[in-house]
Amino acid sequence: MSKEGDYAAVAEAIRKIIPKEGYDDGSAGPVLVRLAWHASGTYDKASDTGGSNGATMRYKLEADDGANSGLEYARAFLEPIKQQFPWISYADLWTFAGTVALEYMGGPKIQWKPGRVDYADDSNVPPNGRLPDGAQGADHLRHIFYRMGFNDQEIVALSGAHNLGRTHANRSGFDGPWVPNPTRFSNTYFKLLLNEEWYEGKSPAGVRQFYDEDKDLMMLPTDMALIEDPKFRSWVEKYAKDKDAFYEDFAKVFAKLLELGIKRGPDGKAVVNVLKAEAKL
């Protein structure tokens, strides 16, 4: 067992579980990134609630949010690592695993800080419905991301996470990968958005999505909104042309995402807003 604070040992253990024969293109990497994303993306700046502190997806109310369907696999993949390193909180492990997986898959290094704590009960679980709905458009994206404190450029940069992974008809209703190599981080997603012809269709579950000509790749309505909205499109064009700029901006905004709602005490540990917790009891 490593000593407390040995994050290099935790990172090495995470890297060892990323190759995953028989699961989603042979890699757990994309779903680990999604876990970090969804654990953090519940933040609401107006009420200062939600975010990655607390690891509240351990509780049924948040785990059962439709937007989190499939993330039980990511949490299960990380459980042996939690047992191996009991000193790391779930909240730190989930977010840290996302950064390790991103770098493992060729993405940029993400600045990450430890210190998150795990809430002992579900009294601080944020309301369901705070995560993006892929069936919506530009207004929905702005509503969701502005609530967290992001601007248009940051929305597009974060959407670049769709360079990784695939959708599943039995989870979200959508089906298929966004890019030909969904286990390698790149700016291909932006290039495809602009350069492919996309045709409206239905997934095997009957959900509206868009396909390329060969139906090998797909895009969500929220993806198409990025090229239909002029302000979003200007950033898509920039990132399609300049991979380095995309990596730099993605690293900044992903690090910001993982820190949403966290206030740390002098010891570096995240503090719980006890008054809010009590108000919900």
UniProtKB/TrEMBL annotation:
Its EC number is 1.11.1.-. It is an enzyme of class 1 (oxidoreductase). It comes from the Eukaryota. Pfam families: peroxidase. Keywords: Heme, Iron, Metal-binding, Oxidoreductase, Peroxidase. The keyword Manganese does not apply. GO terms for molecular function: heme binding; metal ion binding; peroxidase activity. InterPro entries: Ccp1-like, Haem_peroxidase, Haem_peroxidase_sf, Peroxidase_I, Peroxidases_AS. GO terms for biological process: cellular response to oxidative stress; hydrogen peroxide catabolic process; response to reactive oxygen species. SUPFAM superfamilies: Heme-dependent peroxidases (SSF48113). Gene3D superfamilies: 1.10.520.10, Peroxidase, domain 2 (1.10.420.10). The keyword Signal does not apply. Residues 71-269 form the Plant heme peroxidase family profile domain. Forms a one-to-one complex with cytochrome c. PANTHER family: L-ASCORBATE PEROXIDASE 3 (PTHR31356:SF36), THYLAKOID LUMENAL 29 KDA PROTEIN, CHLOROPLASTIC-RELATED (PTHR31356). Destroys radicals which are normally produced within the cells and which are toxic to biological systems. Belongs to the peroxidase family. Cytochrome c peroxidase subfamily. This is Peroxidase. The lineage of its organism: Eukaryota, Fungi, Dikarya, Ascomycota, Saccharomycotina.
